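Can't paste images in this forum, so I'm doing it all in text. The chain is below; anyone willing to post the predicted structure tokens underneath?
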Amino acid sequence: MKQNTTTTTSTEVATTEPTYKLAVNDQIISALDAAAKQGMFAQSVTNEFKKMFIMGGAMSDLRALLTPEVMKPIMALQNTPIGFLTDKPAGGYPVDVVRDCVIEAAFNGVSVCGNEFNIIASRFYPTKNGLKHKLRDIAGLYKNVTPGIPKMVSENGSIVTMHVDWTFAGEHHEKDLTLAIRVNRGMGADAIIGKATRKVYAWLFEEVTGNSVNEGDVTDDVQMIEAQPIEATATEETATAEAPKTEAKATDAESDLKLEQM
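Text version of the structure:
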């Protein structure tokens, strides 16, 4: 009678890194990383002249390194969701504009991939993804944003209250932010909440770090301003004289209100 036998084999686990193709060599990438780190470091320098020279040197280095040849794969990411979007979806921006926006993104700790910034009117604007990235990089910050239900106040406008609570440096804080959001055609509640969340992230970044940041995406041309009460019947002279008193009487909610303007 023939006896069945079992043969045990072992599979060797590969320990080598997966192969990949780089559009530029490692030496250039290392130099780019070093210059970007200098730019990021400069923002924490308190001496203004030191900051100026470190930032200027890093800017010059990055401009020299980001040659048209090196910029080719970056330009391929323009107007793609996995890269970055612009307000010119048909053709995008020329290499010089994109290069300077990429440098600004590097100095601000924002990635060129993942739609973390948009180019609007030739300028760099971090998106909701980019602001979330910046908040995530702040050591010791824990946050939670709870959206309210958007309320339409006009055909093109909505009001939504966002509750944000955060812990930083061992201290816990909470705040309700009431935001006016411009509504584009076909925009649903999720998109409105997405815009509001982006504005909360920008507000929280400034609250925690003391540094303001422009924010926006290609779906809206946004400018954030502080709400100011206006006396409709006051003359210009009276309004100017009363402005300090009015500002002093403004509530916390009014002074923190962020409005979108198109």
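Residues 245 and 259 are 22 Å apart (CA to CA). The chain has two domains: 26-125, 135-260.
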